[in-house]
Amino acid sequence: MSELLDLRPACAETARVALAVRDDQLHAPTPCQGRDVTWLLVHLLGLSLVFTPGAVVPDDDSAPPTELDPAWRALLPARLAALAEGWQDPAPYGGRLEAGGVVMDGPDAAAVALDEVVLHGWDLARATGQPYAVDDGSAAVVLAFTTAVAAPGEEWSREGLFGPAVAVADGAPPFERALGLAGRDPGWRPPSSSSAVSDPSARGE
Question: Which of 89, 102, 3 is nearest to 54 (CA)?
C-alpha cells in the first residue's frame, strides 16, 4: 500500500493565510504572472473540492467559475480541511481520481493536491505580505513533484502548470528549490504599484 500523505499541515497553513486576506487585497498581483488574489482564491476553492476523495463535484461541461463566491471565507477553510482528511483514509490511495479531465492513480492525485495547496498557499501569502510555513514532509513531496516535471523530456507535463524554471542559489533549502522548479522566484515581492490582470494564457498555475 502507498504511504499516506499528510496534507493537514499545508491545508491548515493555507487556510490561515486565506482568512487573513483583506478585501482591499483581492485584486493584488501574485507570483502567478497575470493572476490576482481573487483568481488564486477561486482556484483554491476549486482544486480543494475536486481533489477531495468522494467529494460531490458538479458534472457538467461548464468552464470553472471565475467569480469569487461571497461565502469564500467559510467555504475555503472547510474544503481544505475536508481535502486533508480525505487523504488520511487509505482507501483512495488504491483507486483513481479525476481532476480537470485528467484521471490519476490515488497516490499521484494526493501528491498533486499537496503540491497545489502548498505552492498556491505560498503565492497567496507572498501576494498579501504574510509568512508561509512549510513542514519538512510537504516540502519533500513538492520538491519531488517539481523535480520530476522539470526532468528532460517531461516538458509536456509542465505545460500549462508551471512557467520556466527559475534558478535559485546553490545549497538553497528544499522548498526554495521546489519554488524555482515551479517557475517561481523565492524572493518575489509585490510591485509597489501594479494593476492586476487576469490573463488566461498566463503560466505559473
Answer: 89
Q: What residue spans in the chain does CATH classification 1.20.120.450 cover? A: 1-131
Q: How far, in Å, CA of 11 to CA of 200, rounded?
A: 26
Residues of the chain with pLDDT under 50: 61, 193-203
Burial class of residue 51, CB neighbours in 10 A (0-12, 13-18, 19+): buried
For 1-131, CATH gives 1.20.120.450
Cell numbers of 92, please?
483512495
pLDDT recorded at residue 203: 40
d(CA 164, CA 58): 33
Q: Which three-class secondary structure state does DSSP give residue 103?
A: strand
